[in-house]
Amino acid sequence: MASRLRRHRRTKIIATLGPASATPDMLAQLFEAGADVFRLNFSHGTHEDHLGRIEMIRALERKFDRPIGILADIQGPKLRVGQFRGGRIQLQTGAEFQLDLNPAPGDTRRVNLPHPEIIEAASIGATLLLDDGKLRLRVLRKRDDHLLTEIVNGGPLSDRKGVNVPDVVLPIPALTRKDRIDLAFALEHGVEYIGLSFVQRAEDVLEAREIAAGRALIMTKMEKPQALDNLDAIMDASDAVMVARGDLGVELPPEEVPIAQKRIIRAAQSRGLPVVVATQMLESMISAPAPTRAEASDVATAVFDGADAVMLSAESAAGQYPREAVNMMDRIIARVERDEDWRRGIDAKRPAPEASSADAIAQAADQVARTIGARAIVAFTNSGASALRVARERPNCPVIGLTPSIDTARRMAVVWGVHALVTDEVFSMSEAVNLSAKLARQEGFVQAGEEIVVVAGVPFGQSGSTNALRVAKI
After folding, report:
1. Which of 387, 470, 464 is nearest to 436 (CA)?
2. C-alpha span between 453 and 468 (Å, rounded)
3. How far is CA 252 from the centre of its chain?
4. Backbone angles phi, psi at 148, to 5 degrees
5. 70-88 pLDDT tens trace
6. What integer pLDDT is reported at residue 459 of this predicted model?
7. Residue 473 annotated as catalytic
8. Which of 9, 110, 221, 389 is catalytic?
9. Residue 221 annotated in active site
10. Distance from C-alpha of 403 to C-alpha of 15, rounded to nearest angstrom
11. Sheet containing 127-130: order of strands
């Protein structure tokens, strides 16, 4: 069995799998280059494809003896126009254009919009965006079966291009029939995170949580302006969040997206929720072996902001340089985390602890570790909550998350600074300290004569009871 891979950085990397990364050899290359979590995109591929990738990830996990997380990203509702005679038209700026329920092929005057919910919810003056925001329409008139619009920004429009309605909360559930089938499949095959699309309200998240029933954690994708309006309630219902800047950037003006990103990260950090920054991070590496300087700065900004993880999409799923993209992300993260300004910024953003014994212990562990120069903080955790609380403090030293549950260890793969290990259960604090010292040394975190901080819940085996702290000298 190969030795465990230890990352020498805190921020994690999520790599999307696809045609460019669908072999065991490439999967191993991505993992060795730095991928901590693999994303399965259910907008593409069959269940057979995804099952093959899940099996390859679990084989890789056994080979390297390291827990690896899997994120199943569920597609969500896709709102599209119908088809055109000839497959394509040109919309002229300033002209009128009708969107209606008539399924007949469209022309330069009208097209089918097979979503009565949009017609019902839109108001006079509302904006409709077509084809990822390339075309912009404004509603002039509304009837039960159609919207008459003015073309604000024209251009070519072809069959089944997407529709976005940034001004309106749509009465559409976040989970379609396809999504429910995909969700059941993902839960059956033991993924750790469900990426939930098209979230507008906290109720969308609660519905998915009810279906998951604890079998997987819900990672809410923040991609709708309406989600930002309901940010606190959505955060409170979520297990983790993703700043999905692709769709968010279609419905928000470009200058608003960086502000939204920072706001979402702050809100997640204040609650101790893992937060992922995603989409177009190293986009040019789909077809080039190196990123642009702007892309490198974009990844660095997410690291400076304290995101738990950064994500690759098409770069690793369909690009020409998947391994190089992961390696480049790894290099950028590692360099930023060696910078003094990074550490100062992380310390300045640390949220105040909640009034609980678990938060008090986590804050104390960080403070003690800094004072004595401990080489690691070891958190015993059944559910992952103790390790999450310690990671929320963004300590100077690595966090080793010890758990008897492989599911918990895999879930911690996305959490900032946590090196997760599956261990046997312990039943006393002295047993926990001895095991911590042994594993911290075995994993290369500490040498003889150095110290670690150990946090745990007494009595052992009860989730959410972190109440004890010890210092151990190796």
Report:
1. 470
2. 11
3. 19
4. -100, 130
5. 999 999 999 999 999 999 9
6. 77
7. no
8. 221
9. yes
10. 25
11. 110-112, 96-100, 146-153, 135-143, 127-130, 163-164
279 is catalytic: yes
Q: Confirm whether 39 is a catalytic residue.
A: yes
- The residue with tokens 């960080």 is 366
Question: Distances in Å between the alpha carbon of 33 and those of 20, 58, 97, 256, 296?
Answer: 15, 17, 50, 33, 17
Catalytic hit among 279, 381, 408, 466: 279
Distance CA 101, CA 115 (A): 8
Give CA torsion, residues 294, 298, 301, 307, to 10 deg.
-170
Q: Find where tokens 């975190």 sit.
A: 445
Q: What is the DSSP letter of 166?
A: T
Q: Which of 9, 10, 12, 39 is catalytic?
A: 39
Q: Answer yes or no: are the C-beta atoms of 277 and 244 closer than 8 Å.
A: no
Where are the alpha helices (H) located in 322-463, listed in sequence order?
Answer: 322-337, 340-348, 357-372, 385-392, 406-411, 429-442
Residues of the chain scoring pLDDT < 70: 1-4, 461-464
User: How would DSSP label each residue in 45-113?
Assistant: S-HHHHHHHHHHHHHHHHHHT---EEEEE------B---BTTSEEEEPTT-EEEEES--S-B-SSEEE-
**Residues ≥6 apart with Cβ < 8 Å to 443:** 4, 6, 400, 419, 421
pTM: 0.95
Catalytic residue, candidates 7, 80, 262, 331: 80
